[in-house]
Amino acid sequence: MLNKPKRKSQSVRVRELDNLYKKFFWNKFDFDSCYTCDDKTVPLFWGHFVPRGSKLVRWDINNSRPQCFECNNELRGNIEEFRIRLNKEVGPEEVERIENLKGKPIYKGFINNEEERIKGLK
Ligand SMILES: [Zn+2]
Fold first, then answer.
1. Helix (H) or strand (E) holding 67
2. How do the domains of the chain map onto residue ranges?
3. How many CA atoms does the CB half-sphere of 7 hold within 13 Å?
4. What pLDDT was estimated at residue 87?
5. Which residues surround ligand 1, an ion (CB under 5 A)?
6. How far, in Å, from the CA of 115 to the mean position of ligand 1?
7. Nearest residue to 19 via CA among 59, 49, 75, 48
8. Residue 1 C-alpha to ligand 1 middle, in angstroms?
9. pTM for this one?
């Protein structure tokens, strides 16, 4: 009997996409300070406005910005400040679009689509 090639679990694929996306993210923007408090403390972390558990916006360019450890971890994303700054940067309609995707389930094929999209990001 032929063995079917083992498919990667979703969590493995999510981690692979994280790595792909982060390469783009850190290259694309010349970040030198925390998005939500302007601290120039290094290192910076991959911070999210809507937490990355919401996979529909996990790799959304308007949902992630660099944050210091304090904002990212201790302040759990410093979300109120994140919202204020994101509103100014991308506009309230875009912020609302992102927030509306919070907690929504992914659809069939989403991970494949994202992989293709992220590979094409420059
Ligand atoms: Zn900060």
1. strand 64-67
2. 31-115
3. 4
4. 98
5. 34, 37, 39, 68, 71
6. 30
7. 59
8. 56
9. 0.89
Residue 63: what residue type? N
pLDDT for 31 equals 83
- What is the C-alpha to C-alpha distance for residues 82 and 71, in angstroms, rounded to an integer? 10
Amino acid found at 104:
K
Question: What per-residue string of b and e applies to 46-75 under the rule 16 or more CB within 10 Å gives b?
Answer: ebbbbebebbbbbbbeebbbbbbeebbeeb
What is the tens place of the pLDDT at every residue in 24-81? 999 887 788 999 999 997 789 999 999 999 999 999 999 999 999 999 999 999 999 9
> How many whole angstroms from 117 Cα to the centroid of ligand 1?
29
Query: How remote is the CA of residue 41 from the centroid of ligand 1, in Å?
Result: 8
Cα distance between residue 30 and residue 19, in whole Å = 18
- Taking Cα atoms as reference points, which of 84, 82, 80 lies closest to residue 63? 82
Ligand 1 geometric centre to CA of 6 (Å): 42
Question: Which phi and psi (to 5°) does residue 3 adopt?
Answer: -90, 125
Residues in the chain: 122
